[in-house]
Design goal:
The complex is a heterodimer of chains A (about 300) and B (about 375). Chain A is mainly α and about 300 residues long. Chain A has two domains: about 45 residues; about 220 residues, MetI-like fold, CATH 1.10.3720.10. Chain A is about 70% helix and about 0% strand. Chain A starts with about 20 loop residues before the first helix and ends in a 6-residue tail after the last helix. Chain B is about 35% helix and about 15% strand. Chain B folds into two domains: about 170 residues, Periplasmic binding protein-like II (D-Maltodextrin-Binding Protein, domain 2, 3-Layer(aba) Sandwich), CATH 3.40.190; about 150 residues, Periplasmic binding protein-like II (D-Maltodextrin-Binding Protein, domain 2). Chain B is an alpha/beta fold. Classes of the chains: A mainly alpha (about 300), B alpha/beta (about 375). At the A-B interface, helix 1, strand 2 and helix 3 of A face helix 1, helix 4, strand 6 and helix 16 of B.
Chain lengths: ~300, ~375
Amino acid sequence: MSTIVTPPDLDEQPARPGRLPPGLEVKAEKAASRRGLFIGLPAYVYLILFFALPLAIVVVYSFATRSVTGLTVLGDWNLRSYGRLTDPLVLRIAWRSTWIATFTTVVSLVVAYPFAYYLATRPPKVRAILLVLVMIPFWSNFLARTFAWRLLLSSDGPFVRLMEFVGYTDLRLLFTPTAVVLGLVYGYLPFMILPLYASIERLDHSLVEAARDLYASGWEAFRKVTWPLTLPGVIAGSILVFIPSFGAYVTPEILGGTGTTMLGNYIGRQFVGTASDWPFGSALSVAILFVMTIAAMAYFRSGGKNL
Amino acid sequence: MKRRWMVATVVLAVTLAACGREVGGDPAPEPDEDTTVDETPDDGEAPEAAGCEVGEVDGDLLFGNWSEYMDPDLVTQFEEEYGVNVTEDFYTSNEALLAQIRAGGADFDLVVPSDYMVEIMIGEGILMELDHDAIPNMANVASEFADPPYDPGLRYSMPYQWGTTGIGVDLEATGDDPPASWALLFDPDVAGALPGQISILDDPREGMAAALFWLGYDLNTTDEGELQEAADVIEEARAWTVTYTSDQYAELLLTGETVVGHGYSGGFLDSFWGADDPDRYTYLIPEEGAVIWTDNMSILADASSPCTAHTFINFILDAENGAQLTNFTYYASPNAASTEFIEDEITQDPTIYPTDEVRQNLFFLESTGEAEILYTDLFTRAQG
């Protein structure tokens, strides 16, 4: 593994390192840069075609006008769609998305942290098996799994039956915010477990032992040593869960009902649903992207670099 | 830095080039309600007809349809007889279908819009004029469907099925004698007091029509105040509405998620008759008035297999095939020649073939022109 593989012969062999006339050095640098561009080209093309271009279209459309028949007219550019962003209905849906995503993140963290800790402290063999178990859900379709939840949460499904048995009658889960949170936690839990596992596994246990030696209680040792040292994993996992939950579409669409419309559903309805208002849907998307970018930048500026 | 600007410029240029056109075809010509009939030339010739032979096929068929609205055996039969593949894809409302066609990429050959939507689509120029010579079974269409106001002379559409939009009820929750009234959806003292919840169609025209009937207004009103009131009724009902759905209203009722549902006649009856306890459920046509509709087969102007689509229309309009369709969907057939092949259980059922008395209370949705968008906006807003 440690043998150095010599690069295959290229037409433009890079100049040998060492003393070179300045002209040649510049040439070599340029050649290297050209090669770099060549290697990066597929990624550039991909990102421009499938990311930058669609995004630019969304931005352009957000300034367009909707005709009286619901067609999008490209022309008469204006900011009307952005003016509608402060509509109480939009704010209500945005607020709902925020708290559903927050709640999902907190529940995921509470469930995932002890499990990740357990996982990281198992012998390697057990650890491998458990990790595979965490990943297994990804092998089947997300849509199919969400539909399975629909059966589990239905009025004659096991959850409601169990609660009835315990004494809670008239409980309904399907089509409620609870169902949406459950579905989201289920869907995104692995994204919380994996970064937590990575940071807990890296934790130097002798530090915890040292804290205990210095008469810290178990809880204090956790609070003052383990938690701060695994915080990068907590933050990474929270971001990975919060962002997709905030923009969730499939889960609230299938498990939610009246009163669980999230931003993703509201935007979807402007395009494929009945609302047929592309400029407004585009403006909503741009606004969310903008807010998310600002939040991420603020976070990384304020010392999130040590992730 | 320079390079970055270049990339940005290229992206912007390509974007602008890509969108330098109106989305979804030309804007609709101003529809003039009063002269719609006169616009149709009477020479009986279809100038832009596809020119297909009877039974001609020119490729596989992509069929955009409502869900649970086609007997799979009929599809298989057609595929075997003509040696083409039929792919079915589904939509949940006329507006969703229109949005899908406008967005492009759906590539449907044949679609099944309802009456008023046929009129809107003709106005937008997205339907192909039918070649009547390729559809000899057109003669089977019952006379009352042969010259509808939304498409005089059936130049762009052929009737597929017809039915009503009403209320499906779980009698165990409402008692044995529920009122045939939209109160079951909207009255806080009736709907709000049910031991369970309701579902409303995820369809702006149908949802608003139900509320307009309940308020005693015209279902095709263009009065903004009346529409706003109707939207308020739907919004108020949110407290006991579990969800808005156009394809699961019957399933939700049968699984006990809802006790009352807003939906289509055949959709409910099909499920009720197959339930363990069929007598527990019933379908009601509200006395305040209800929507009667015909769904129609139309070929899109940019269809890639127009002749296969014509052949398919002709196949459905065949007497026995039409009967087989109704025996599967439990919706009424506009095919006069089919009647003798349809099960008596269906033809005798007044909820499928309403009596003349009931039919006086049934109304068609009509295109409201520029108010169409008001329906959409207010309904979307009421859904929250």
